[in-house]
Amino acid sequence: MMKLRRTAFENLPLGAIKPTGWLKNQLRIQAEGFTGHLEEHWADVGPENGWIGGSGESWERGPYYLDGLLPLAYLLEDENLIAKANRWVEWSLYSQKENGSFGPERIETVNHDVNKEHDWWHYMIMLKVMMQHEEATQDERVVPFLTKFFGYVHSTIEAQPLSGWAKTRGAEMLLCIVWLYKRTEQTSLLELADMVAKQTTDWSDILHDFPFWRKVDQWDWTTHVVNVAMGVKTPGVLYELNGSPDEREIVHRGIDSLMTYHGQAHGMFSGDEWLSGTSPSQGVELCAVVEYMFSMEQLTRVFGEGRFGDILEKVAFNALPAAISADWTSHQYDQQVNQIVCNVAPRAWSNGPDANLFGLEPNFGCCTSNMHQGWPKLASHLWMKDLDGGLAAVSYAPCKVTTQAGKGALVIVEVSGEYPFRDRVFIDLKLDRSEHFAISLRIPAWCSNPAVTLNGEKLDMIVELGYTKIDRAWNSGDRLELHLPMVTETVSRNLYATSVERGPLVYVLPIQENWQMVQQREMFHDWELYPSSSWKYGLLAQTPFEVKEYEIPYQPFHAAHSPVKLKAQGQLIKEWKMEGNNAGTPPLHPNIDGQPIVELELVPYGGAKLRIGEFPLIGQRSLFKGKK
Fold this sequence. Notes:
The protein is α+β, with helices and mostly antiparallel strands. The chain has 17 helices and 28 strands.
């Protein structure tokens, strides 16, 4: 039987971390847009949803929606949103049968690849909801509810094993089994974990010797981009259960392979619907973005390595906001690094011709229901605890943390500085008494010259696995200042094309956007976007970069109001063609005859809905230094 192993960190309960600054604004924008109003405008999570007793959709869409709505509600302390979320939670709690099962009596879904007689996947999402609900409310009904449900699973899962979506996503159930075991120490839960693990897709084998080297053009459960984004966490979850040191290496090997064969500039691997290679005109699905973020949060908890926080930030600060309109009233199913037009048109992907529209339900409704978890779960995983009473910073977005540390001292940690738009982070501590404990600060791999001071005095730093640990007695009023100098770097990609990064942000050439409504609704319309400025620019190999900082607006992910911009030099490439309704492959030998050198203004990727993020390189490649 499996035995639970010690992880590097533990999550803080939902509500212990509250967003502040730009991140709180982002959550408020989300609440005022899709997440706060989707029930009234989209039938699939409306009053007829099966997870609140209706006769409509009763598979994944209601639980997906709640998996973002509930944490958003408690992070914002919004009573209206909390009431919305509680309606769903209460229905599930009261739906439990004597045998332990719960939920809708039947499965209603537009997915044709679901066994409508029985499936485990939709339960797994609701289990994650219940965990968060218990942490936020200390609802005493949740642990007995889950205990009874897992008794039902234990008695039936051999006869009705994981299959399809549930088989590839079994780690999501394992997370809840582990969570419950830590609260009850029932040995039957570890027996069940062993059963579930054996039925789950062997992601450790796939990630160790990654077999998908090129764009995939046929269906397979293990190349579906969302399954992959979820599956990446599986070796980490298994490590907590079996303690095998191989699982850590497997995760790194798998991520390396994914980025080598399918990686894109925004930090994700492609997938429009299947793994799709490295072309900047291939898409990546929004569901994959938020699920990969959650995987990185879990891998950080298990292994305590800074690399996973680096990936989390890159995806969260670039790919996530890029796929959702600034006012959170429309979103894309697929986004592209080089995205010059968003319209209904055939493209070289398996998704439909409307997959890169901004709208309510482009291509398919899974992202409409699942995207809501991205920002709230980032906020609730910004800090963690180590197992010795210390604290660990996973990301430096502004927040306020209230928890206990050391031998039980009450600690309030306030993080300010508006990172990642600025390179200084201020960490102010308030304690109810002096206390000795460690604070582990993540030092991003992109930062070569970090510095930290305590009350103005510089501290020595030793960085191990992406963290520096400050182990000392802390007093109320102590202030840490972390300086993470951000150097503009150019990253060479396929055919010498290049992307531009500064800190965790990717910078792109914004293309002026002409938004044209193609479907009007009461609140959430569908839009095509057409370019109204030229996109055919390459970047000079020897370009200098000039950084310009501006006031941080309420919505920083908006190209016209970007709080940081870069000035660079480039030239127009007349013969860079469109191919298949996309920007063509960045030319290896761009023809710039007669074209003047012009100043290009680059902005953070997440705010530019039309953009060039992977530039053809102009000039002698030997002069291309990488850092400016």
